[in-house]
Amino acid sequence: MRDTRAHSRKPGLRLWLSGGWITILVLAALLAPWISPHDPLAQDLFAGRMPPFWQAGADPNYWLGTDSLGRDVLSRILHGARLALTVALIAGVLTCLIGAILGLIAGYYGGWADLVISRLVDIWMAFPPVLFAILLIAVLGTGMTSIIIAIVVIDWTRFARVIRAEAMSQSKMDYVASAQVVGRSRFGTALTEILPNVLPTIVALLTLEMGIAVIVEAILSFVNLSISTDAPTWGGMIAEGRTSVHQAWWVLVFPLVALFFTVLSFSQLGEGLKDHFDPVLR
Amino acid sequence: MQILRRMIARLAATAVTLVGVAVIVFVVIRVVPGNPIAMMLPPGATDADIQRLQELYGLDKSIPEQFLIWAGGVLQGDFGTSISLRQPVSELVLGRLPATLELSVMALVIAVALGGAMALTATLYRGTRVEGAIDVTGGMALSVPDFLWGLVLILLFGVLWPLFHISGRVSPSLGFEFQSNFYLWESFVRLRFDVWADIVAHMFMPALALAIPLAAIISQLLKQSLKETMHLDYVTLARTKGYSETSIITREALPNAILPTLTLVGVQFTFLIGGTVIVERLFSYEGLGNMAIDAVINRDLPLIQGIVILFALIFTVVNLVVDMTYAALNPRLRHA
Fold it and tell me: B43 by DSSP, 3-state: which?
């Protein structure tokens, strides 16, 4: 449905920029304990709300300043990247697995399975997703596992819907019919013929999903339903920064920049991959 | 006949969806560990007190029994009583609904205006850098969700260049007595434009945050449809007749290109309404979504149920209306 010509004018640049940012982020997340100048949880009440290094009154020890409890903003962002990427990876892969399996079943087997799964998707679409996520966290309790479960539960439909449609159109193709003619089982056909053909779509969707997982985690931290109250999450930092934005803008701006570019990069990477794999359909 | 059967099938599906939503919310919030009644009583309360209140709210019965009692009440318009605010849920929810409706509609209007303008400009300057710039802007607008746009707007126009208010719905200092909860509408009808301007200054940024991703989607799809229409014979005919490019696009191409966009806007509008939950929180806007988050934090079971059902109802009704509008506007479906 979308215009590909305009987008594919510079397909390389978009992928390089977003891929580059995510690489930096992965490195920052992996190396956070070694490259962070401070302990992300260490408070220094005498150094609260220190501005970043280029402003008057800054402490050169705290490059990006400190929050109201005197915790180092840079160290918290680096450790926040760890939490964000962990959630993105685990929640993204699990959502993808469950959604893709259900989508394949519905699209390829059809019949009752399709009816039940499609009806479930309809019901899910009638929930406001953010409210649903918050509700689940309230039920499951806060913590990394709960956040991951909540993301999987609210977002499996995204994969199920697309993969169902793809599997449906693929299963009408001649090569699927010929696979059955030569005596492959239905399950075997699904695994060896349909799956490889929808795999590019799955990879692109997975990349998009990781961006969504990052944002959901940030939203949950923002309403204070994240891992724990003092854990260095970007959403938690943003929530604190939002309340003190007139006194200490840097507490809001730096984690926001990190979150903004991360979400943008995952999304651009996913869209780029989608165009790259499938220039005709998208 | 065909249309009638289609509609009945749609209505049945809608009913199934709503019941499904009700059952899921009902069961999910009842497996919450921690007793909501114990939380609302002072620390010195005895077990007998807790027992008495549980009976009062019907929480001592089994989940299927509770569901039947609740569903029976809902059919008569009774959604129960909020545990934390001790008022009828229907009153609370309907009191907040106008705020959310006004915000959503304002966001929709902004999205249509912005997206439409982007599509028309890009079509007029197709193949030039202007089109390229609009594509890149649209791609970015689409990649970042409303929550983040809200934060960016707070920084830009709330702090750096404080043009708008960043929290609340109306300045209390104005001392205006509202008769209804449709503040924007009421201040306009009562010709209090100072109040109206103040409300707009509060609503504009949350509405814009909600509108940005939708504007990008509208722009992309409308541009695509316009592009396809621009190659049709009757457009070429208009061109040979010597009409200007602008009037060809707006008078000839647009009416024919608008139908697919219209359907999409309807579906996307439900996502926009879903987005109000966190955006209202972000801007401390006193709508349904903000109340919903408080309800979840306070474990207010009847209130959570009421709000989620109302959201689901809005979503399904919007989808239904879109389907019917599409059927009415599309001659191919009408005569099928």
Answer: coil
**pLDDT reported for residue A156:** 93
Which residues lie closer than 8 Å to A229 by C-beta, 6 or more apart? Answer: A236
Q: What is the residue range of A130's domain?
A: 2-39+49-277
In a domain, A255, yes or no: yes
Judge: A2–B224 Cβ closer than 8 Å, yes or no.
Answer: yes
- Per the CB < 8 Å rule, is A123 touching B20? yes
pLDDT confidence of residue A14? 81
CA distances from B332 to B9, B134, B252, B327 (A): 19, 33, 20, 8
In a domain, A59, yes or no: yes
Predicted pLDDT at A188: 74
Q: ipTM of this complex > 0.90? A: no
Q: Which of B139, B289, B296 has the CB atom closest to A138's CB atom? A: B296
Q: What is the CATH number of the domain that holds A216?
A: 1.10.3720.10
Q: Tell me if B206 sits within 8 A of B286, measured CB to CB.
A: no
User: For chain B, which residues make up each domain, given as ranges?
Assistant: 89-335
B-chain residues within 8 Å CB-CB of A222? 147, 278, 281-282
Give the residue on A whose Cα is nearest the Cα of B137.
A7
The CATH number given to B89-335 is 1.10.3720.10
Question: For B139-192, what is each residue's pLDDT tens digit?
Answer: 889 889 999 999 999 999 988 888 888 888 888 888 788 888 898 888 888 888
Number of domains in chain A: 1
Structural domain includes residue A282: no
Q: Which amino acid is it at B324?
A: M
Chain centroid to CA B2: 31
Q: Which residues of B touch A263 (CB under 8 A)?
A: 143-145, 148
8 Å CB contact of B155 and A218: no
Give domain status of residue A44, yes or no: no
Q: DSSP secondary structure string, A198-214?
A: HHHHHHHHHHHHHHHHH
Give chain A positions within 8 Å (CB) of B220.
2-3
Asked if A245 lies within 8 A of B292 by C-beta distance, the reply is no
pTM, two decimals, is 0.88
Please give, rounded to a whole number of angstroms, the shortest distance from the CA of A16 to a CA of chain B.
15
Token code pair at residue A148: 């991951």
Interchain contact, A222 vs B281, CB within 8 Å: yes
Q: Is the pLDDT assigned to residue A280 strictly greater than 60?
A: no
